Amino acid sequence: MYTKNGEDYFIVDAHIALWDARPENQRNIHGKQFIDCFYDYHRNLSPEEELWSYEDYLYQGGERLMKDVFEDGYVDHAIFQPAYLGEFYKKGFGQTEEAFGLASAHPDKLTYNHCFDPRNGENGLAQLRADHERMGFTGVKLYTAEWHGDSRGYKLSDPETYRYFEECQRLGITNIHVHKGPTIRPLDRDAFDVADVDHAASDFTGLNFIVEHVGLPRLEDFCWIGTQEPNVYGGLAVAMPFIHTRPRYFAQIIGELIYWLGEDRIFFSSDYALWTPRWLVERFVDFQIPEDMTEYAPLTVAQKKKVLGLNAARMYGLPVPEELRLPEADETETGPRQPEMADLGAAHSGAAQ
Fold it and tell me: Positions of the region Disordered (predicted)?
């Protein structure tokens, strides 16, 4: 819980990870390239006082995660989103068993989401069923640019992926988080293209597609898909820290998302351990759209409360104290929102002439 100026904010961090990138777990040079790229994002987008050493960055462990996220970070509940990356790491990058164990020990604070790769075919489907029976997860994280033998990626619209989505529907795995947007060395940018979300979301309306990183740098593509597909959501992982280094860019991102998707379909994410939630929560609560960016309406306290936790809590059925709940905005199901706020600056300028 975070409190500022008499307002209480229920915080759900919808994208965290527990990874192991230490040299002894790196399978090849690509494992080092991957974590080095992560660290450069951390180093270049964080305030100086929030920087970690490279050694701390390689592995955090459960005890430090609990302190960073819950004790220091204001978070009420967090959701694991693992990335496997078995071609780069001997035991995988995201530590699924460790994360599942931590979530099992703290079910009031942590939700465990799993992962799958449709290129594993029938064996992968059998493994998904077995993992679901043991772990009982309701969400998965997909990494479409992951390497797999000679393959350097797959699409959500591939026939083999559809077989997994059909199985997800049958098992009750309804929340499909997908990394779409920022590439990470040595993965390929185009394998993270957001375009295939459109196809899958239209064909599987019973599933929720949460586009992590809101498709950056393809924000416009994502917004045009998200506005017409009511089961598509935007996750702010990686977008959030621009609030520090490029606040006007962040204003554009959040302004476009609220205009195209609406205030009920945007999720706060720190992307821990890329960044820690504390400073991101504080900065977002204090943030406002610059006055000269008249194409966007000012952010309201209610919108911030929804983005910081109420939206994700609703999707995952997390209990929220009654006094902190807010009604949905009752916006149009598809198409742009806030028609009354269309470029106020331009309208005022025209009226003055």
Answer: 325-353
Enumerate helices (H) and strands (E) in the chain, giving the number of each: 14, 11
Two structure tokens written together for 261: 């998707």
Rounded to 5 degrees, φ, ψ at 213 are: 75, 10
Instruction: Name the H helices within the chain.
Output: 29-45, 54-58, 61-66, 96-105, 121-135, 159-171, 195-203, 219-226, 242-245, 247-260, 277-286, 301-305, 311-316, 344-352
Residue 110 near residue 18 (C-beta atoms within 8 A): no
Helix (H, G, I), strand (E, B) or coil at 325: coil
DSSP 137-155: -SEEEE-TT--BTTB----
Q: Say if residues 49 and 202 touch (Cβ distance below 8 Å).
A: no
- pLDDT of 191 > 90? The answer is no
The pLDDT tens digits of the residues spanning 72-122 come to: 999 999 999 999 999 999 999 999 999 999 999 999 999 999 999 999 999
Indicate the SS3 state at residue 209: strand
> Quick one: 329 exposed, middle or buried, by C-beta within 10 A (0-12, 13-18, 19+)?
middle
Backbone angles phi, psi at 135, to 5 degrees: -100, -25
pLDDT for the residue 190 = 87
pLDDT of residue 351: 47
Amino acid occupying residue 211: V
Torsion of CA 322, 79, 65, 51, to 10 degrees: -100
Nearest to 114 by CA among 88, 133, 89: 133
Phi, psi of 231 (to 5 degrees): -100, 20
Tens of pLDDT along 121-144?
A: 999 999 999 999 999 999 999 999
The tokens describing 233, both together, are: 């959501």
Angle at 232 between CA 16 and CA 287, to 5 degrees: 60
